[in-house]
Every structure is written in C-alpha cells, then in structure tokens.
Design a protein that fits this description.
Layout (H helix, E strand, L loop, with lengths): L17 H10 L19 H10 L5 E9 L22 E9 L4 E7 L4 E7 L2 E6 L4 E6 L2 H16 L12 H13 L2 E11 L2 E10 L6 E9 L5 E8 L8 E9 L5 H4 L8 E6 L23 E4 L6 E4 L4 H6 L18 H9 L15 H8 L1 E3 L2 E5 L4 E5 L4 E4 L3 H7 L1
Helix pairs in contact: 2-4
C-alpha cells in the first residue's frame, strides 16, 4: 500500500459520549408492549396494527436526505483516498444519500461525497448509473423482446394469473398477522417508545432474536405515524450496545411528488456512455411459489440450523477465479445456470469484473487486495468477521455465511 495513504481510525467516526450510549441502551432494555403517547403525542398501537398499516399504505412519492452508517468492525479498506462518492464506502463510516421517487417505478438515488457523486436512476425497466469521478454513464435496458414480455407479465400479475400465483391477495391485517407469526417463530416482536425521525413522529417496531447464538441483537424499525412509511432501520449487534452496527434513516423528508426534471435522466455533456442489455430470466424461472412448501435449494447449497442461527454453505466454488474476476468462474456458483446462460448475461457480468484496460468500463478496484485486506488466514482458509456477519472461505472451495460468530462457521467447516 502507498505510504501516503490517509489512515483513519475506525473508532474516530463512531465516538459516542458515554451518557448517550447508556441512554440508548437503556431505552431498549424492557420495551413496552404498546407505544406510549408520552413525548410524541401518538395514539397507542399494537405491533399488528403498525404492520397492518404499513401493508395497507399506498406507494408514497417522497424526496429527502438519508444517512447510512456502517459500524461493522471491518479493517480499513485498501483505498488511497476516501474523499469521493464510491459505493464501496458503504462498508464503513457514514455516507449521505439524496433520494427521490414518484412512488411507482421512477426513482433517483445519489451517493454524495466531498468531491464527487455517484447516482443511480430508474425509469420503468431502464436504469442508469453515473460516476462524476469517472465521468461515465452506464445505461441498463432490456432487449426489445424482453420489453414486450415485461408488458405481458405485468398484465398477468394484475389479473393474478402468473404461474404459481395464489390469485387472492391477503388483507393488510392478514399480511400483518403472517409477518408477526413468522417473525415470532424465532423472535420477539414488541413496540418501543415513540420517537422522532426527520422531524416526524414515528412508532418503533423492535424485533429481538430469541437465540443468543446470533450476532444480531435486535432490529428497530421506525414507522412514520402519518404515512406508515418506514423512516429508519437500525440493526444492533449483540456484541455492541453502544450504537447500531447498521443504520439507515432520513434526516429530512418530504412526501410531495418530485419534479419530473429530477427523475428524468440525461447524460452530462462529455460523459462517456455505455449501453448494457440486461437479460430477463426465462418464463419458467419467473414462476412464483405459493408458499405451500420450502423453496428447493440448488445443488451445492445447504443450510444448517434455523432462524437467526442458520448458516448457508456453498460448495464447489472457484473462489480464486471469482476473486480474480474470471467471468467463467461464475458458472461454479450453484444455481448460476438460471441466470448466466445467455451472451447478454455474460456481458453484464463483465461490467462488474476488474479490467486491465484503464479505459474499459470494468471495475478498477483491486479485488485481490480487497479480499486480502478484509479477510484473515485461519486453518480452514480465509475468514471475514464483522459485528453482524461472518464469512468463511475454505481452501477446498466452500463458502459458509451466517449471522453467527466466526467460531460457529469454523466448527461447521
């Protein structure tokens, strides 16, 4: 690594006064069954009422500023400067995003950096990404034939005639009950004290795993009292009660429809533009399950344990090839034949692979250096440990992933 690389302590951006940490931790020690109206002047609601309101809410236009913060305990990333707007920055520290949506199929998200911006724009079946640092636009779209298929599938979905479609949709109350029953299999769902997010009164749903063998301590979702739109999600690690390991929430929000000019995309003058055709899966791969039985896992994939303690294992992977960016290595991923069988799919994979040509559209990131930096050597292979997730890559081509301590994965290997 260059000696001029700016080093930043991962703790520096996360310093929390002790009294604040104690207050935050104490607020969730014994969450009440109902949301109290004290302090936020909100009527009492049960968890089922809040979930039902979210299920019943119509898609809402909005715009606002979102702050995303990751406190995963990962090593410092091998990047010379972290002053730009790079999606890789989402692995650690705080990032600011601006978001706009019309509530249907048009949206824009901009990741803001001190010296650059990275934007993603969706308009129906088309999408664009723009990096101001590279002055580069990538336009993603379906082929003409797949575009026609999308229209037919949308009509079938509206009529409830998609393969495997149950036909009748549950009521919001039924959907809420299903969510709570499934969550209740492995968790306790309660309602915390009301809070204020982006200046708006909000209820808090708290999902606490019943198991002590998971790295997830609890998940806290703040729901806007007026619109039932989620305003903030916090995921707390069982190993650290001082601050959320992951947090994404609005700091300001408006539920007015954004101007059309904001949602429309036009390439900046002088920017390079590359078109990528995105393959749509075959009709047979689009069938929906009716929920009558467990989803069949692809050959080479297995799951050990249940709920928050579950560990997923992939076997037979060409890990070295995947890290090196060899598109052919993607074929060793179980189930990959469902999505990478076409030339257009192979081309799409190539967009995200490293490139030796500085002028190409491939990622310029040294993935081998990133892999070495984020993982540590263990007798079984390489291990990535974070406050919420552990990943073990074994020397014989297996990958084990779970929201469990690293020692659990090593014992299973």
């Amino acid at each position: 690594m260059p000696s001029t690389r700016r080093r930043r302590s991962p703790r520096a951006a996360w310093a929390v006064p002790g009294v604040v940490g104690v207050a935050v931790a104490a607020a969730f020690v014994a969450p009440p069954l109902f949301a109290s109206a004290d302090g936020a002047d909100l009527p009492e609601r049960t968890a089922q009422q809040i979930v039902a309101a979210v299920a019943a809410a119509e898609p809402t236009p909005l715009s606002g500023t979102v702050v995303y913060t990751a406190r995963l305990g990962l090593p410092e990333l091998p990047i010379t400067e972290m002053t730009g707007a790079d999606p890789l920055a989402l692995l650690g520290g705080s990032s600011t995003l601006r978001v706009w949506t019309d509530g249907t199929d048009r949206s824009r998200v901009s990741l803001l950096g001190p010296t650059s911006e990275y934007s993603a724009v969706q308009d129906g079946t088309q999408a664009w990404t723009y990096s101001s640092a590279k002055d580069e636009v990538v336009h993603y779209a379906l082929s003409a034939a797949d575009e026609a298929r999308v229209g037919s599938l949308a009509a079938d979905a509206q009529a409830g005639t998609l393969p495997g479609h149950p036909g009748d949709l549950p009521t919001p109350d039924e959907a809420a009950q299903t969510v709570l029953e499934r969550a209740g299999e492995f968790s306790t769902v309660t309602v915390g004290a009301p809070t204020t997010v982006a200046g708006r009164g909000a209820y808090q749903l708290i999902v606490t795993p019943d198991s002590s063998a998971t790295l997830v301590g609890r998940v806290v979702i703040a729901v806007d009292a007026a619109t039932s739109a989620p305003l903030r999600v916090q995921v707390w690690s069982s190993a650290d009660a001082s601050a959320p390991a992951l947090e994404i929430g609005f700091t300001d929000v408006s539920f007015a429809t954004p101007d059309d000019a904001v949602l429309a995309f036009s390439a900046p003058a002088g920017a390079s533009v590359k078109d990528v055709v995105v393959p749509l899966p075959a009709d047979g791969e689009l069938a929906l399950t009716d929920g009558a039985g467990p989803e069949e896992l692809p050959e080479g994939v297995s799951v050990t344990g249940t709920g928050w303690e579950s560990v997923t294992e992939w076997s037979g992977l060409d890990v070295a090839g995947l890290i090196a960016g060899d598109p052919a290595a993607a074929a060793t991923v179980p189930g990959a034949e469902r999505i990478i069988g076409s030339d257009s799919a192979q081309g799409l994979i190539g967009e995200f692979m490293p490139s030796d040509d500085a002028g190409a559209a491939g990622m310029s990131l040294d993935t081998s250096a990133l892999y070495d930096q984020l993982t540590t050597a263990v007798p079984e292979g390489r291990l990535l440990s974070s406050t919420l997730l552990s990943i073990l890559i074994t020397d014989d081509g297996r990958v084990l992933v779970g929201a469990v301590p690293a020692e659990t994965l090593r014992a299973l290997a």
